[in-house]
């Protein structure tokens, strides 16, 4: 993996453990020569991970819609900052630039980005690894809910395994390196066509 797209909050959250996790992920990525691709802001966890990647000598590419330049305060100190038309263009560009995806703690925007890229994997539109950095157990309830979705027959178990989870940035990135998309849970083309 040369680049990982990280979805995370424009807020730091209440616990300092979330910012610690962002700095830990930044160090793991830089130590492994992996570029950061993210939403381009300099506030909240977005700013924490971008600042740490740059401080450690790594590369960071931001993608931000023009309308959010002020609200999310576009980061001026990145390797590259792409200012795009809208959220659709933002998410598409981030996906194109990345070899994998990690969701850190965040709000509904982070969840929306995560579930879109997870859905694309389920449908077979990409075979890139997707991870949850489960800092301080932030995603425990979500993982339990996804198990419930499987138990109730709305998600196949092998599709659920497309979403990797770990509290350790090093362990998560290592699992992502070992991930083989192929047919490891992806719908056959004829099933994907039925859903679309």
UniProtKB/TrEMBL annotation:
GO terms for biological process: cytokinin biosynthetic process. Its EC number is 3.2.2.n1. Gene3D superfamilies: 3.40.50.450. It holds the Pfam family Lysine_decarbox. It catalyses: AMP + H2O = D-ribose 5-phosphate + adenine. Belongs to the LOG family. This is Cytokinin riboside 5'-monophosphate phosphoribohydrolase.
């Amino acid at each position: 993996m040369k680049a990982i797209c990280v979805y995370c909050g424009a807020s730091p959250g209440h616990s300092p453990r979330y910012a610690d996790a962002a700095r830990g992920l930044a160090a793991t990525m830089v130590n492994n020569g992996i570029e950061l691709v993210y939403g381009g802001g300099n506030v909240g966890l977005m700013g924490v991970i971008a600042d740490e990647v740059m401080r450690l000598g790594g590369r960071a590419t931001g993608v931000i819609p023009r309308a959010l330049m002020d609200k999310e305060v576009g980061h001026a100190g990145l390797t590259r900052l792409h200012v795009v038309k809208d959220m659709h263009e933002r998410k598409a560009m981030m996906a194109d630039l990345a070899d994998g995806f990690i969701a850190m703690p965040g709000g509904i925007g982070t969840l929306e980005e995560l579930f879109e890229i997870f859905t694309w994997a389920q449908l077979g539109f990409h075979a890139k690894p997707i991870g949850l950095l489960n800092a301080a157990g932030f995603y425990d309830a979500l993982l339990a809910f996804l198990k419930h979705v499987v138990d109730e027959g709305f998600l196949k178990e092998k599709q659920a395994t497309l979403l990797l989870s770990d509290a350790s940035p090093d362990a998560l990135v290592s699992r992502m390196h070992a991930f083989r998309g192929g047919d490891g849970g992806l719908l056959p083309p004829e099933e994907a066509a039925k859903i679309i």
